[in-house]
UniProtKB/TrEMBL annotation:
Molecular function, one GO term: catechol oxidase activity
Species for this entry: Trifolium pratense (Red clover)
Protein name as annotated: Polyphenol oxidase
One protein family per Pfam: PPO1_KFDV
Domain of life: Eukaryota
């Protein structure tokens, strides 16, 4: 788990209608001859991290092996605006992001986890 800073909080209704808050996981590096999968969860920093009913699943990253040796580097983006509304964390400065390995072997490196805003239209 890592704590991720939210660049904006308390967005207006207009901002929420125009922009999606997006969790970005950059620099996912692994052997291209490996299959990997992990689930992504977000949580309120003030909540007890061991309390699973307060943690929200936001998506899964999956990559199947490509049959050749070498390194693969990619990224994963997932919209989290609705999840944050459900958690009532619009006023929070930070979120806890947890990656839960599901499939894979070998080393997986994560370059950066951040939040950005993308236009909805």
């Amino acid at each position: 788990s890592v704590i991720v800073k939210r660049p904006k909080k308390l967005r207006s209704k207009v901002e929420k209608e125009q922009e999606e808050e997006v969790l970005v996981i950059e620099g996912i590096e692994f052997g291209s001859d490996k299959s990997i999968a992990f689930d992504v969860h977000v949580d309120d920093v003030e909540d007890d991290l061991s309390d699973p009913d307060q943690v929200e699943f936001v998506g899964s990253f999956v990559s199947l092996h490509h049959g050749h040796n070498g390194k693969t580097s990619t990224s994963f983006k997932v919209g989290i605006s609705k999840v944050l509304e459900n958690l009532n964390v619009d006023v929070d400065d930070d979120l806890v992001v947890t990656l839960v390995p599901k499939v894979g072997e070998g080393e997986v490196c994560i370059g950066n986890i951040m939040i950005e805003f993308l236009p909805k239209y």
